[in-house]
From TrEMBL:
It comes from Aspergillus mulundensis. Transmembrane segments: none annotated. This is MYND-type zinc finger protein samB. Residues 233-313 have a biased composition (Acidic residues). Residues 25-41 have a biased composition (Low complexity). It comes from the Eukaryota. Residues 22-41, 226-320 are annotated as: Disordered.
Amino acid sequence: MLEDLHDEYLFPIFENLAELPFPASSTSSNPDSTQSDPDPTATAEWCVVAGIDHVVQLADGSTSLTIGDETRDQAQVILNPDGESSDANADADARRWISELHTLRPEDELTILLLGARKETLDCGKIRVHVADLRCVKVLRIGLFYLFELTDELRRYTDMCYGCGEEDGRPMHWCPGCKMALFHNRKCQKNVDHLHRDNCRLLRDVDLQTLLREFPDDYQHFQAPGLNVLETWSEDETEDEDEDEDEDDDKDEDEDDDEDKDQDEDEDEEEDEDEDEDEDKDEDDDEDEDEDKDEDEDDEEDEDEDEDEDEDEEKQHNYA
Ligand SMILES: [Zn+2]
Ligand SMILES: [Zn+2]
């Protein structure tokens, strides 16, 4: 079962955040803050999930973000890559992705994730949100409410095929890309390919997966902090593990496809599938031309290499 983004303990709104300071254990950069925190939730891990409304460069070189939580309350976050971090590489990385935030178009919807954030109530009554470290900040290229809708939907489909909506006891398999959606078979997956394709890319984000699956166990820093830029994923160490898992998944899928062939019903489905594929091709040609055509051809050619091919696709998207 995926975590619920509406869970106010794991994903609190600004008002429910603990006040500064950070507990000593989570602020390596500030050894002076050893005072005990009266807040019983002080050592708990949580993640603020909010939309980014405005990005402003301040005179001192830092970046101010106006962010809005689920209740549409607003708060401010200051990102300063020249701050107190002891890690020069992390600082350089932060400078890069924070400067990228300024180049995004206003219509790009963005969601910010802030691990273990604390609040500071300013004299004017506004809330400023602080994180211990820029590694606790992550920006997803998706709107806040779309992210809520998407995760709500995935939770509803926990025991159901994401493609056909049936829960009929037939074996199901995780989508080889995101492993967040269950499908009976390739045909069911293809039924919602046009809907799931973009979501699938987003859901592969290693940190989003951890938040939704395993959070809050010992999750003090994002593994890939900053802006979720897809091409950086190929450099991620977790990639190899994922690929191994995928191979297993795909083998399972193949085995089950064989089982399905024994059933009359599924033989009919397979015939239908050929027709559907032709239809898909026509549609895709109209919509997206070369890109989708390549993808369909890839799907047909080799099912076992889904992830590799999807990654190539991602790169194309980003460089485009
Ligand atoms: Zn299905
Ligand atoms: Zn997927």
